[in-house]
Design goal:
The protein is built from three helices and eight strands; from the N terminus they run H-H-E-E-E-E-H-E-E-E-E. An eight-stranded antiparallel beta sheet has the order 1-2-3-4-5-6-7-8.
């Protein structure tokens, strides 16, 4: 029998299509672009996404929309916190991401990072909540040329995120 490690991928119960879409969104959220982009015309964002954002996040301010070939993103401030909401191309709500701090990760993950990723620096940390209510935390770690992204599911299972 093959020995399991604490970083093996864990099943989330989501369909393959949803996993693929969420993977694309997470990869996009965690990737820093060196190119400036012009904001999309608000007319390119359908009333469905606008209505959803206004309903779910009443009183959101500083809203900036971004439309890509795979998803629609609204970056905004809500209750004093910077957030992003994601919609698929049918403008159905997919989930939200928020920046988090190292202290918001479970102790199990922090101990694992110290043990298996000694010398790595956490460069980004987010929490992604799906429309279905599932929450996953992601940490981007770097050590010179080496980069790895860890994910922690709601049960504190830690795995390497592979887009």
């Amino acid at each position: 029998m093959k020995k399991q490690t604490p970083l093996q991928n864990q099943s989330t119960g989501l369909s393959f299509g949803k996993k693929l879409f969420i993977t694309a969104v997470i990869a996009a959220v965690c990737t820093v672009s060196a190119f400036a982009t012009t904001p999309p015309d608000i007319k390119s964002v359908n009333a469905k996404a606008l209505s959803s954002l206004n309903y779910e996040f009443k009183n959101a301010t500083n809203i900036v929309w971004k439309v890509t070939s795979g998803y629609i993103e609204a970056a905004f401030t809500w209750n004093g916190q910077r957030m992003k909401a994601f919609y698929n191309m049918d403008e159905d709500f997919v989930g939200t991401s928020t920046d988090i701090t190292k202290e918001e990760f479970p102790q199990r993950m922090l101990k694992l990072m110290c043990k298996e990723y000694d010398g790595y620096k956490m460069t980004e940390a987010i929490e992604f909540k799906t429309a279905e209510g599932l929450t996953t935390k992601y940490a981007s770690l770097e050590n010179g040329e080496k980069k790895v992204m860890l994910q922690v599911d709601e049960n504190d299972n830690v795995s390497v995120f592979k887009p």
